[in-house]
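Long-time lurker, finally posting.

We've been working with Glyoxylase, beta-lactamase superfamily II (Butyrivibrio hungatei) and I want a structural starting point before designing mutants. I don't trust myself to interpret raw outputs, so I'm hoping someone here can both generate the structure tokens and explain anything notable. Sequence follows.
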Amino acid sequence: MSKHNIQVGVLTLGMIATNCYFVFDADRIDENGKKHVVVFDPADAGKRIFEELSKNDLVVDLILLTHGHFDHIMGIPELKELTGAKVGCYEKEAAICSDPHLNLSVSFGNNFGIKPDVTYKDGDIIEAAGLSFKLIATPGHTSGGCCYYIEDDNVLISGDTLFEESVGRSDFPTSSTSELVRSVREKLFVLPDETIVYPGHGDITTIGHEKEYNPYA
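Top reply, 14 upvotes:
Generated this for you. Predicted structure of Glyoxylase, beta-lactamase superfamily II:
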């Protein structure tokens, strides 16, 4: 049984309609009447994210990345400056975040890169905003892609690893189709069927639905 009144909000932003999620425990309110959130993949609109959260009395404690592609990370400088929150990712993705060729920003006329403040290992438990997120390494879309799992609440932030009845592309630098399929089958499909999947693009789904209907995995 869940210990939290977990809420997952989403802002869909940018040229590729990237889902930026913010996750919080609605019952956990600080002495100033604020709720604290973890933001995932702030797309390209750090200021807008900050303004939307602030007007709802939400404070950013941490920014986590599922992977380092430009459409998931370009909002970081603004959001980090406005909130003071640190940025974390899987240790094997840090190089992609900082390299404009690997993060694909150079292909869209930008020479953009960021350096995460903290990196994590596969299986690490990340404590923030009163919640616990388990990092699950899911290479394939990128070599250091990952998902974040809230076990108590059966919530998975899947980035571009797993979509509704699809998976992420595997034709980019550091991608691997075989690794991606293995990640989905061996790392994600072992989670409970009722786990709600919040992907980097498109609509939410469940592990049970994907096990039955996903043609790629």
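Before you design anything, note these points.
The chain has a mean pLDDT of 96.
Residues 6-213 form a domain with the Metallo-beta-lactamase; Chain A fold (CATH 3.60.15.10).
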